[in-house]
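This part of the workshop introduces the protein records we will be handling. Getting from the letters to the tokens is the skill we practise here. The record below serves as our worked example for the rest of this section.

…
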Amino acid sequence: MKAEIQRRRLNPAPRAWDLLSIALSVVTADFAARRDQSPDGWTREIEIDIAVADAPFWSGQAAALAEALAFLTTDRWTLRFHEGGFLPTPPRETVRPTDDCVVLLSGGLDSLVGAIDLAAKGRKPFAISQTVRGDADKQVDFAAKIGSGLVHLQLNHNANTPGIQETSQRARSLIFITFGVLAATALKAYHDGQEVPLFVCENGFIAINPPLTGGRLGSLSTRTAHPEFFARLQDVLDAAGVRVKLTNPYATKTKGEMLKACADQTLLRTEAARSTSCGRFQRFNYHQCGRCVPCQVRRAAFLAWGTVPDATDYVYKPIGKDDAEHAGFDDVRSVAIALAAVKADGIDSWLGHALASPFIQDRAALLGMLERGLGELRALHQTYGVK
């Protein structure tokens, strides 16, 4: 990863390199600390010592970072910083890309739409991917086909720990965003003193990730683009003087609305089914399961879009089938219970405190988006006869 950045002769800001050291340490600890060994089977207490180039500054941000991580992973974090961190010598002939923003390109449907829209609106995004087995080739292909072809950089943290690794991997969000921050601070616009937008494109329903039932923790699914995590991490970036603005332009849009409003419908129709949304993609030998919450949101979005049939090869397609692998599967039941609860008691009762964060400023817009997102899921369950 570091070698690839240096091979491309990029020169990220020193505190962006420090943030990379922090993110690598966090993601490695996330792998090593197993949730099933914690007292409640989920919440962990994690303490890590991290070498950085500017230990006094980061020591002052330790509490803020720990709070951001606590929200992201629902764990208790203690971070300690000391000198000796990696800070490479700038390349002799630095390359400063002239792109005007950075976009995370994961191989997922939302990031595909986001990159398409940015290029269609005349932006020149630098596409950053976190290389994931099963998605690497499509990341390259998507970048080549969007606009006149995007400048694209694939990075991989290669974190590994001995023994059995924790599979939830909630901290991976931090490392992916950090890759984007590194790239943003290497752009010519950044070196010219400008603030660089970093686009993390995710539909609002998954970004908010409302607990579907009372027994389902929000962190059972990713919180990569949740407004609170964004705001907490943005505060740290601002304190560091890192002029990168985290932005999710689809925070108040459902996935179906993203598909319908995509600026290049021809390209989207061709590539949408190739994208990945599944939370269990690797577990099913690089096939999408069709029944996890992200898959259900994806399938509901295709129905709402209505332009082309969903040609995705799902492992469990008929989710209304009355057995444990389909309608009886936990995620399908959780969505069904949520839909029933909203119908019986209203959305405010079902949501509880999900939108109570002081970091949420546009509650009415988010509430409307969640209602529309539930409507898309309701249509999916009715289509497949989920009861």
Observations:
- The longest strand covers residues 45-51.
- Residues 255-383 form one domain.
- Residues 234 and 332 are 34 Å apart (CA to CA).
- The mean pLDDT is 94.
